[in-house]
Amino acid sequence: MKTNFYFMSKRIPLFLILILFSAACSKHTNEQAARKGDKVIALDIEQNDEVSIKDYFSHIEFIPLETDKRSVLGQNIKKWLIYKGNFYFLDHRQGGLIVVFDSKGKFIRTIDKKGQGPGEYSVLYDFSFNRFTGNLELMDALCYIHIYDESGDTLKETIRLPKGEQAIHFYTQLTPDIYVFFNKYREKNKLFFYSISKQEIISETYSDWPDYMNETPFGGQDTPFHILNDTVCFYEYYSGDIFTIDAKTMELQPRYQFDFGEHNFTISKIPENETMQFYLKFSFYVTEKYVTFFSPVDENSNYYISRFYYKKKAKQVILDKRNKQYKIFNAFKEGFQCMPYYMDEEAMYAFVPPNRLDFVVKPEVLDEENLLRYKSVQEDSNPVIIKYYFK
After folding, report:
1. 305 in a domain, yes or no?
2. Within 10 A of 315 (CB to CB), how many other CB atoms are there?
3. CA-to-CA distance for 2 and 339, rounded, in angstroms?
4. pLDDT tens digit sequence for 205-218
5. DSSP string, 199-217
6. Cα distance between residue 229 and residue 12, in whole Å
7. For the chain, what is the domain count?
8. Is pLDDT above 60 for 282?
9. How is 5-42 classified by DSSP, letter by letter?
10. Is residue 156 part of a domain?
11. 282 close to 17: Cβ distance less than 8 angstroms
12. What is the pLDDT confidence band of residue 173, given thresholds at 50, 70 and 90?
């Protein structure tokens, strides 16, 4: 969330937004102020811990991505992941393509299947390597999944969702037979489950998503799914709540629910059916009182890490799942922020353009080899991956 977006329009009187915001606050002050359940973790949002990068990480690797005509990444990277040591980036240029780099940032290839023929897509909106088969899957927003071998060279099959489905935004594999999809514009249930063997939708859920949410900044733009130890997880951008998707019942089960007391944020606090310009300004004032805009959310076996907004500023939370101890802070004491775009058991990764390097790393925390890489980055270079190794 970028604060300059909040002032796109001056047509909405400031006093009107403040009146609506105050009304929402007074009406819902005690709502969720004492959340209950064994998955609820109470967090003191006013806590401001002193956290060193050395408290969690042993060392930092600086990985510039090779920059040439073949490998230049666009401004809109929809998704990226790591598979067998290589980095895969979904670049939304002209319908989407995937740019691949090795573990040191050297360009390998692009995967581009745009077109109208077999195995080709109109809009590449999501992708993954199937965790059961290892196949590369390319998800067309127009309700197709094109399945290729691991290299992306050989088309194996194409899955077409039922004709009643108009679009899909994000997906993942729940079981070898079942996919779960998320479409925030879908009527009623936004999550639905498709069986390959039956070639039909076998279940759907998640109706607590009003249509006007799609006109607000609270809906999120990134995938709501992540997978930990073969468990599929789903998170809410506006609340930070994380759910497990039960592979047998296909229902959402609470995984982590955070209690910020009177600062908890819910959909019911959002005025209905306003303009996008209104919601952009409204969201700015919401963060003065409430905790919201959790992005990104990720975890490994030991840690849950996320960024969120409160009092109009970005903050970070690191939860040690082994003892349920947490830290909330604005920045590491070394002077840069924690921006987890991806996590695995080994490390946390940040992905930033050259002009924002100071937000995620400082030269003085790098060893000699990585400092040389840092100094090699130019203004027109590709974005850089910062890899923070867990202790």
Report:
1. yes
2. 20
3. 15
4. 999 888 888 889 99
5. TEEEEEE-----GGGGGSG
6. 47
7. 1
8. yes
9. GGGS---S-HHHHHHHHHHHHHHSTTTTTT--STTEEE
10. no
11. yes
12. very high
